[in-house]
Amino acid sequence: MEPIVYRLDSRLANPGDLTSFAGHIDLPSYELGGREFVLPEGLDYDLVLTNGGEGILASGMLRGHVEGSCDRCLEPASFEIAGEVNEYYLFAAPQDARAHDTDGDFGEDYSEEDDDFFLVEDDSVDLTEALLSALLMDTPFVVLCREDCKGLCPHCGQNLNEGECDCASREAERKAEMSPFAALKGLDLPE
Ligand SMILES: [Zn+2]
Ligand SMILES: [Zn+2]
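Above: the input entities. Below: the structure tokens describing the complete assembly.
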């Protein structure tokens, strides 16, 4: 997909300045956990960018209609994305532990996690990653065609939303036949 970049201008020149930034993303589909999702209308974002003094805060919503398939019955299933975006883009990398580390061994207080921030680069804020992660975060772990989907019969594959199969009753019969008491049925036991 095309990167979503906001180029900083005079509207965000001073701390406290804010401006809205909305737009459309033409992403036809995406994948998550081996599942394929289709976005027939793409995605829409509606953000507010704020100059927070040390960086630009981007907050708002990402919305879209998603079509996939039900994890229980494999029939088409759809859901709505309403993902929250909340990301801070620093003007400069923070004075991290490396700068203060007097013994020079890049001490243990400096961890990978300290790299976990976005930066304003070339006077621009690249929102692509923040928007994509909002999409993935808001994609349900289990997608269902309806909340009470009965799924497929594990024995014959019948879609149980469309009707019952006789596997359950046959299974009960089979268990009864296998019962040790079944063998006694035919016996003529003396009283
Ligand atoms: Zn289903
Ligand atoms: Zn069945």
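Note for the figure: The chain has a mean pLDDT of 88.
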